[in-house]
């Protein structure tokens, strides 16, 4: 098997609906138990269910002095970044910050803060609006705040390719490392946009599940009776280093990112290409970048949103490139759709599958959709214990964005 230009994942930070930290996340994802529940902050709305991070206390994690200044999407990212750096065995107070970068995917910024402050403005007076409204709401500030927290003085960037943003960030970070721009990069995605305004907008588009009477069963990727996704929040941050550097310092390598590609559908603002042509092209390009043949891919963590169109077109794309030889899962059955964070969170889960030799199931799938007119091997019921060498993680986003990552066992 030929190998492409790889970088190593040496640290993982996860703050998601599946839990806080690697162990909680991996246990919950392998269990296949959904995190969706009725959301008290959405009672009375068209859709009142979501996937929140359980037990997240920003004040306890960050201290009151800092937490109140930050929107939740930034809080989640900072905590995930701290976890990842510690997990990698690095110390941000002593590293050469000029050789470290940060790139984080996000799409909606501080949507909840902006919604609240605009309501304050229209219902009160201009003086009632917080002076922190803009820095809390701006998309780019999450990379800035993580850089400040971790003493990072190299490049910082936010990628915004909708629900492919987290994967785009990882692909960008890989290029920074391989070009020699950085020696270490914190890369991932974050999102916390669960608010009445945002969810009503998604509901009006027909993107959300209306199975509000049974939240835990609402997210059901590839199932015959799926009807939309459950909105989630979360962050996933990876520490990436060149493989040679990681090996030289004796770092644990969860997996290597061997290939990446991004493409555009140029088809529709919100609907994917009906045959998944753009995603298929991204996956082929990523495999070529990695030096991996299609029949060597053993596992795919699919985007699998639980919307009728996405799962059909993604299945077609995967089959057109890989046939039915790869075991496919969508962990969104557990976490819901964490939007811009999804590609990073799912890349972390893919790395953990390679590291631990276990493939998570797709939650809530009693029977696959017979209208999916191609044969793919969707993991249902329980996790599969299986040692694998090559896996892929795929992401799609509004605007026709596609991203594919190829990961290999370290």
Structural notes for this entry:
It is a single chain. This protein is α/β, with parallel strands linked by helices. Helices cover about 35% and strands about 20% of the residues. The chain has 14 helices and 16 strands. Strands 1, 2, 5, 6, 7, 8, 9, 10, 11, 13, 15 and 16 form a twelve-stranded mixed sheet that branches. The radius of gyration is 20 Å and the shape is globular. The chain starts with 6 loop residues before the first strand and ends with a strand.
Task: Describe the structure concisely.
The chain has 410 residues and is of the alpha/beta class. It has helices at residues 22-31, 58-62, 64-67, 72-87, 111-123, 133-137, 141-149, 165-179, 196-205, 243-248, 277-290, 308-322, 332-335, 342-356, and strands spanning 7-16, 19-20, 37-38, 49-50, 100-105, 156-159, 184-191, 234-242, 255-264, 299-301, 327-329, 358-359, 377-378, 384-385, 390-397, 401-408. The strands form 3 sheets. Strands 1, 2, 5, 6, 7, 8, 9, 10, 11, 13, 15 and 16 form a 12-stranded mixed beta sheet that branches. Strands 3-4 form a two-stranded antiparallel ribbon.
Number of helices: 14
Average residue-wise pLDDT: 95
Net shape: globular
Order of helices and strands: EEHEEHHHEHHHEHEHEHEHEHEHHEEEEE
Secondary-structure blueprint of this entry?
Layout: E1 7-16, E2 19-20, H1 22-31, E3 37-38, E4 49-50, H2 58-62, H3 64-67, H4 72-87, E5 100-105, H5 111-123, H6 133-137, H7 141-149, E6 156-159, H8 165-179, E7 184-191, H9 196-205, E8 234-242, H10 243-248, E9 255-264, H11 277-290, E10 299-301, H12 308-322, E11 327-329, H13 332-335, H14 342-356, E12 358-359, E13 377-378, E14 384-385, E15 390-397, E16 401-408
Parallel strand pairs: 5-6, 5-7, 10-11, 10-15, 11-13
Antiparallel strand pairs: 1-2, 1-8, 1-9, 3-4, 7-8, 9-16, 12-14, 15-16
Helix pairs in contact: 4-7, 8-14, 11-12
